[in-house]
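Continuing the batch. This is chain 6 of the set; chains 1 through 5 are on the previous pages. Same settings as before, nothing changed between runs. Recording input and output for traceability.
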Amino acid sequence: MFDANMIFRYLLYDNKEMASEAEKYLNTRSVIVTIEIVAEVVYVLKGVYLIEREMISEKIKLFLDLVICHKKDILCIALDVFGENNLDFIDCVLYAYYIKENIEIAIFDKKLLKLLSIN
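Output for chain 6:
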């Protein structure tokens, strides 16, 4: 299982040695990534590295093709919504569960309520 730092080094390639180590693991095609780890990655890429939402969405979706992710469909919906809307990523994950698994979401967040009422 990858932690967020392995994903950062691979995506950002800001440390060649660490990025190469991450690539070795990815080449095994047995790396597991969870929604929680991706949420941390999104948060840091947006808040610390100031990467635009659309770029974050695109890069992580490409990355997900290299790993095992048991809720990939949820993550891809959440990443699409995150790239197109001004919502926190966790709200995008909640929205994805609502859309994909028809799970009712109890929230007060006005932006997410608006998005839920559209669909």
